[in-house]
Design a protein that fits this description.
This protein is of the alpha+beta class. The protein has four domains: 13-211, no CATH class; 223-371, no CATH class; 381-476, no CATH class; 486-532, no CATH class. It has 17 helices and twelve strands. It has helices at 17-21, 58-63, 68-72, 74-81, 149-165, 210-218, 222-236, 249-273, 324-343, 347-372, 381-392, 400-407, 423-427, 440-464, 468-476, 486-497, 502-512; strands spanning 13-14, 40-42, 52-56, 92-94, 97-100, 103-107, 113-120, 126-132, 171-184, 193-204, 275-276, 298-299. It has a six-stranded antiparallel beta sheet with strand order 1-7-8-10-9-3. The longest helix is centred in the middle third of the chain and has 26 residues, at 347-372. The chain starts with 12 loop residues before the first strand and ends in a 33-residue tail after the last helix. The structure holds adenosine monophosphate and magnesium ion (MG).
């Protein structure tokens, strides 16, 4: 594991601030254990016996100054499979804890994530490269540190899809089959199978999670806590530092407020596009307000605030779609608790939570106005309009993505005084969104809502001069036409498991432009097929990955 021998490969520059600024675990033997008083442990990726490149993301490569030829090179394959280190890489696994499903779980840590280092690109940006599935670390507890192809395809495709949707997220550079076979009990029913192993190289400015701070506070390591907060401020929030000075108590509070705002923005985006994370434990919350850890996530098909794709959460439904804004707030409260030793007062921390509520409300109103094509949200009247819409969307199974996209084509006949179309005619353009035909009563209620919406559009056009064209453009910029429906990912996985990566590549192209009409891909703008309703991977997923 030394130097590169591929002449075409441009060797990047590394500046590993996390490991040079924070305390290392003095123990270097790679065995599972509690790691106290340290932020990370040195560890080496497990060699992959027969690596094979499945896909890479050209946009991420470009960000890192890798050329197309670099990504196709043997060096790239060996490095991002875990077989070779580039000069300047210093691999480590970091230590964090977390609340899982509402309970403090103690030390978790990078159990199957190995950070290779912080690449500095030509623009001077630091990007941490992290292999997911590259073998055991001191944080692996009883598990193998590996990842299977199906969950790696899901992470690779979805994190990039989210980025192109405008949702803050970690990125994915590459997806590589390792040649290893990995044993997984997908249904937790005592029937484990051997599955192909894979490694994704994830990329983010920082992989620090709420749980990184929590673990120090839980262990009363207040010096390490302050060190980590100060490091995070210097590395990722330098704009918050007082002029030339070191952070103080006010800086810490301003920082928490920024985390509250970016977290609110992230969740508002999820709600806008119909994304359900599935495992919003505090160890899965990024300090940068980015979506992180793509496990049993899912996309709403039928609009249902109570839906969760995660079978492990089927009982309590703690992380159901409609609960996400509240859960993020709960998680922020845990982060605020973790920072308490540096603040030593409760009120300013409560004020941080208020910042979250206000920011979420602001984003949600802005997004709902845009989803409906309105120039602005009128509190009161529009709250009612939206509440009524959410009720109407649940009269029968109604595809969220298709509904909002087709709503842009609803013709409100703005220059006519009245609209004498009957219910059926009004609703006709929305029919492809309904999984079953509406009964008469539901049709009446849905049409009533459309008439109220029409009145609202008339007012918007009088107040703001919005015409039909402007409205459609506005809506199509926030209501995606194409999302990574669960069955689409599963189809790509089924083929990939047979050695055919073409569907992964097709979905990469499709999901690069989710808001654009792409006539060659029109067949993806369709309801979930019947066969996918109850199939594993399509409607329900476990944490086994
Ligand atoms: P997750 O539910 O994927 O967010 O993982 C929770 C914790 O379990 C984290 O500390 C992970 O690193 C760890 N973990 C999950 N899967 C594995 C695995 N296959 N091997 C080792 N650690 C794992
Ligand atoms: Mg996790």
């Amino acid at each position: 594991m030394t130097d590169t021998d591929s002449p075409s490969f441009t060797a990047p520059h590394f500046d590993n601030r996390f490991v040079s600024s924070l305390p290392a675990d003095p123990e270097t033997e790679n065995v599972p254990r509690p790691v106290a008083g340290a932020s990370y442990s040195w560890v080496r990726p497990k060699p992959a016996p027969a690596p094979r490149l499945v896909a890479f993301a050209p946009e991420v490569a470009e960000r890192l100054d890798f050329s197309e030829a670099d990504c196709q090179s043997e060096t790239f394959l060996q490095v991002f499979a875990g077989n070779q280190l580039l000069p300047g890489m210093e691999p480590y696994a970091s230590c964090y804890g977390g609340h899982q499903f509402g309970h403090w779980a103690g030390q978790l840590g990078d159990g199957r994530a190995i950070n290779l280092g912080e690449l500095v690109n030509a623009r001077g940006e630091h990007w941490t490269l992290q292999l997911k599935g590259a073998g055991r670390t001191p944080y692996s507890r009883g598990a193998d540190g590996l990842a299977v192809l199906r969950s790696s395809v899901r992470e690779f495709l979805c994190s990039e899809a989210m980025h192109h949707l405008g949702v803050p997220t970690t990125r994915a550079l590459s997806l590589i089959l390792t040649g290893d076979k990995v044993e997984r009990d997908m249904f937790y029913d005592g029937n484990p199978q051997m599955e192909p192993g894979a490694v994704v190289c994830r990329v983010a400015r920082s992989f620090t999670r709420f749980g990184h701070f929590q673990i120090h506070t839980a262990r009363q390591e207040h010096d390490q806590l302050r060190q980590l907060v100060d490091f995070t401020l210097h590395a990722d929030f330098p704009h918050l530092l007082p002029d030339g000075g070191e952070p103080d108590r006010d800086t810490y509070l301003t920082w928490l407020e920024e985390v509250a705002r970016t977290t609110a923005q992230m969740v508002a985006h999820w709600m806008r596009v119909g994304f359900v994370h599935g495992v919003m434990n505090t160890d899965n919350m990024s300090i940068l307000g980015e979506t992180i850890d793509y496990g049993p996530y899912g996309w709403l098909e039928g609009y249902d605030p109570d839906w969760t794709p995660n079978t492990t959460d089927a009982q309590g439904r703690r992380y159901r779609f409609g609960a996400q804004p509240q859960v993020a707030l709960w998680n922020l409260a845990q982060l605020a608790n973790a920072i308490h030793p540096l603040i030593e007062a409760v009120e300013p921390l409560q004020a941080v939570l208020e910042v979250y509520r206000e920011e979420y409300q602001r984003c949600w109103q802005r997004d709902m106005a845009a989803k409906l094509g309105l120039a602005e949200f009128e509190a009161g009247a529009d709250d009612e309009l939206v509440a009524e819409l959410q009720r109407v969307l649940q009269l029968t199974e109604t595809d969220m993505t298709i509904f909002y996209r087709l709503l842009a084509d609803f013709d409100p006949r703005l220059d006519e005084e009245t609209d004498d179309r009957d219910d059926q005619a009004l609703l006709a353009p929305l029919e492809p969104a309904y999984y079953q035909p509406l009964d008469e009563e539901s049709r009446r209620q849905a049409a009533d809502w459309l008439r109220r919406y029409r009145e609202r559009l008339v007012r918007d056009s009088v107040l703001h001069g919005t015409d039909v064209h402007t409205r459609r453009e506005r809506m199509n910029r926030v209501n995606p036409k194409y999302v990574l429906r669960n069955y689409m990912a599963q189809q790509a996985i089924d083929l990939a498991e047979r050695g055919d990566f073409s569907e992964i590549h097709r979905l990469q192209v499709l999901l690069r432009r989710p808001y654009d009409e792409q006539p060659e891909f029109e067949h993806y703008f369709a309801q979930r097929p019947d066969w996918a309703r109850d199939r594993a991977g399509c409607s329900m997923l476990s944490c086994s990955s």
